[in-house]
Design brief:
- The chain has a single domain, classed as Vaccinia Virus protein VP39 (Rossmann fold, 3-Layer(aba) Sandwich), CATH 3.40.50.150.
- Helix content is 44%, strand content 21%.
- The protein has 8 helices and 7 strands; from the N terminus they run ααβαβαββαβαααββ.
- The protein has a 7-stranded mixed sheet with strand order 3-2-1-4-5-7-6, with helices on both faces.
- Strand 4, helix 5 and strand 5 form a beta-alpha-beta unit.
- It is globular, with a radius of gyration of 17 Å.
Length: 242
């Protein structure tokens, strides 16, 4: 069984409740910290993920755990009819709506609050589904993946970006030091959150990656699963079809 990691183990509230509260609290600094702490590489990862949806020319896209909408904004390059960005944290969505409005895309990208493990959509609705750095925060990973499979059309595609752990020397050692010490210190300091960026490396440490996560996708009903490590394994891209 996968170990459950919560933002604050001293509290009796659920992981889902804590994740919602945590992201609402760091929403004002979230985009800045993403760029700052990843050195901007996260933008390259998102471009790569969306490139694997291009052959399908999807017209209706669901972006799960959309946050402030970075991946949804990147998906506009696919010229879809509509993108729905869903997230549990309303404050993250609020900042996302401003970004979308500034681009003039509010008619195409709809941001809505919702639970990734209980998607408010009918079966076989979406041509494509994307998730960037969100599945790690699901309280019940299997349930969230099965829900995405349920609302994806047959022949549709899911792309998932998630942090992973580099294995090669010396990048592994440099990464571990940065991720365990520098990132939590700077992230918690700048976000004024006591645990958001301490939770990040802990959640990555215990999250199934590579073929282990591919097994979760297969169990949820996905096929043609591909695993692509990015930036020496710092991040992994998962592509799966229904």
């Amino acid at each position: 069984m996968m170990k459950e990691v919560k933002p604050d183990l001293s509290l009796n509230t659920s992981k889902k409740e804590q994740v919602e509260e945590m992201f609402n609290s760091i929403a004002p600094k979230y985009d800045f910290l993403n760029r700052f702490l990843s050195l901007g590489i996260d933008k390259i990862w998102r471009k790569k993920a969306i490139s694997f949806l291009k052959p399908l020319q999807p017209k209706l896209i669901l972006d799960v755990a959309t946050g402030t909408g970075d991946l949804a904004l990147e998906a506009m390059k696919l010229n879809p009819d509509q993108i729905i960005g869903l997230d549990i944290a309303e404050q993250m969505l609020a900042f996302g709506r401003v970004k979308i409005a500034n681009k003039g895309w509010s008619n195409t990208i709809k941001m809505m609050q919702g639970d990734s493990e209980n998607l408010p959509f009918e079966d076989n609705k979406f041509d494509a589904i994307s998730v960037a750095f969100g599945v790690r925060n699901f309280q019940h990973l299997s349930l969230g993946l099965k829900e995405m499979n349920r609302v994806l059309k047959p022949g549709g595609r899911l792309v998932v970006l998630e942090f992973s752990k580099p294995a090669s020397f010396p990048y592994k050692q440099v990464y571990n030091f940065y991720f365990s010490y520098i990132l939590p210190f700077m992230g918690n300091l700048l976000s004024k959150s006591k645990n958001a960026y301490t939770y990040l490396p802990e959640s990555v440490k215990y999250f199934p990656e590579g073929e282990a996560f591919a097994a979760f996708l297969q169990e949820a009903g996905f096929v043609n699963i591909m695993v692509k490590p990015l930036t020496f394994g710092t991040c992994s891209l998962y592509i799966a079809d229904k």
